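Quick start: read one record
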Amino acid sequence: MEWRTEKNTVAYENAVAFMESRVAGIRSGMEDELVWLIEHPPLYTAGTSAGEGELLEQRFPVYKTGRGGRYTYHGPGQRVAYVMKDLRRSSKQPDIKQYIHNLEEWVIRSLEPFGIRGERRDDKVGIWVVTDAGECKIAAIGVRVRHWVTFHGVAINVSPDLSHFSGIVPCGIRDAGVTSLSKLLGREVNLKEFDGALKETWKKVF
């Protein structure tokens, strides 16, 4: 598994084009699997289940995407981890549900070193935390699989501008908020600090 971290923000359309090419290379056996850690400039993406009324204000460019899920926000301070993995290489009986469960576990365990307890919800997608203000989402998950090769992945709110989420109904959920590591800890958390936890935890989950 190759790891790659981009120093600069990556335009969404460029990221999708890169993933499409890499997935084809992985499927053919010509390319290694990849965990790609990036940031996007501020934008909204609409997954395959996105509803029209969930875009409240088009503050940023909106991209329709083939991943599962609804509307989400990407922007600086959010760690996007795109995972391009051939599920057939790790199992004779590849299981997409188990893969998504493992992505969730990866995020949950990566939050633990910061003293944050991430949780799953049966009725809500993503990773959640319980705060004094109620239940808040700290990470979104959206996956696409082509010929058993995965792409897209997870987006963890490390230190983004949370006000940018107000232009959408995040993931279609109206009765919960969003939060970040920096907000929960009361200090700035940089992406490099969180990347260390992601890399360490990956080995334990996958």
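The chain has five helices and eleven strands.
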